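New here. Invent one.

***
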Amino acid sequence: MLSRMAAEDPEEEETDVDDLLDELEALELELADEDQETKSRVRESIRMARRIDEDTPVFGRVIKGFDRHDAAEALVGSVVFGIPMVIEGGTLEAGVYLATHPIYFLATLLFGVSIVNGLLYVAEIQDVRVVDPILGILPRRPVGLLTIAALTSLFMMTAWGRVDWAEPWIAVCQTAVCFVGMAIGGALGDILPGS
């Protein structure tokens, strides 16, 4: 059956292990009335294909869920991208500007969220799947990444004395500028290792 597929369309692009598994599972169903030895060989082929799938390189793997390991990668990415933003004076200047232009403040936040979603789901750096969304609608990965970036930027900007909470609106705007960079770094830190 697999050789027949290749013969039907010689210009077909590469097939992956998932395609092979689908074909083998379909073949297994077709062999319902065949002898046990043939069915056993098909099942063994399915097991081998799954082992090959587990051993595939980092890129091209399916990324599901969001666990401690992913959170740690997101934190590292946030910090790596965030440290230059925390120590750079331009972050503070941009925050002061956003404080006087609330529409740009909202646009900045939307830009950060959009870039994170684009990196995860549109850029196709990895095959990121939504699994078990929060409340049935919020994907765990972007919510986790954005939360980590927000808390990290809040902590670092405050702990390093980069914001003055005596003027909370300006401090929030300055922290938001840092948050956008950290969110992008967190997304890249999470998906590039491919876990």
About this structure: Residues 2-54 form one domain.
